[in-house]
Fold this sequence. Notes:
Chains A, B: Pathway: Cofactor biosynthesis; adenosylcobalamin biosynthesis; adenosylcobalamin from cob(II)yrinate a,c-diamide: step 2/7. Chain A is of the alpha/beta class.
Amino acid sequence: MTQPLDDADRNERHNARMKKLQAARARLMETKTIERGLIIVHTGPGKGKSTAAMGMACRIIGHGWKVSIIQFIKGAMTTGETAVFNAFPDQAEIRAMGEGFTWDTQDRARDIAKAREAWEAAKARIMDPEWKMVVLDELNIVLRYDYLPLDEVLDVLAAKPADTHIVVTGRNAKPELIEMADLVTEMTQVKHPFKDGVKAQAGVEF
Amino acid sequence: MTQPLDDADRNERHNARMKKLQAARARLMETKTIERGLIIVHTGPGKGKSTAAMGMACRIIGHGWKVSIIQFIKGAMTTGETAVFNAFPDQAEIRAMGEGFTWDTQDRARDIAKAREAWEAAKARIMDPEWKMVVLDELNIVLRYDYLPLDEVLDVLAAKPADTHIVVTGRNAKPELIEMADLVTEMTQVKHPFKDGVKAQAGVEF
Lengths: 206, 206
């Protein structure tokens, strides 16, 4: 049986380990020198894809830059974050260009026309370097249903200004988009309160 | 060889399928009637855990409620979102109570004292129903290193006011916390630009 470490021993070992970790991390960070606008994808079946994009939009505002959020699927739902972004009218815009979820519209031709309209608006923002970040919210859904040609979207992303960050959200991201992206996070649902009969909560879901 | 569907056919089939989906969803939503404050956990090795919590905090502000963000690990780093939350001084606070990453401090006794201080501040916010949401940012790291007793933390969360939302972030969430939580999302890293030598970007990482 080994002797349990007393607190002083444990602290000392911890501190030595942390010192090594710090040195390793410093060496790693020295190799990270490239600054450029990123193509970021939030996908997967879990929550937090759009919400994390909203959090990034806050950071852009905080740094004094401009961010445009184009919502491809959600309609003119009044979400909590709209009020926050509206407090920075010179730096942020949220444009709800979708008609609601596709199972509410039941009109594919109309969905395609709306997707095209939203994409044209998005393209104008992406190509204007004044906008430091463009969030293409739920664009993955639009691409999944073939409402927009994937090649056309990828061509525009490839031609974006060097410093612009693009954030694409929505489940089922196309493999070609993941291939092109710099940073891809998959959100996985471990546990969801809907299963217990809890309804969507203001401040959490919208 | 089957005849390719023409566009009118494809639209009609899509619309019929969406009509069924809408009806199924409406039936499901009718069973979701419980409103209450949730315990939410963002964990996993991917990005977006704290960022999605910041997005939720924006929603709380947008709805006119109050949110407190307690940072357990990060020090007084000036992140982009601080500027946004500072625009709502009556509704939002960010309290950076940590001393930086634990590999920078190399002082376990001091880390524990700081964790205790942050936790006491967090407890006061959690128990005051005036705060609709309390974000315990990186609390999972603190629990992982045993800087705070897990049982004490779980007892406080179990005793939170009914309407209060708690958001806990950080990788390696304790199984007991996941068990207690209502909503758990795991963020998985699919692709990260660090691998290509790209450094942390203002507006994305901070």
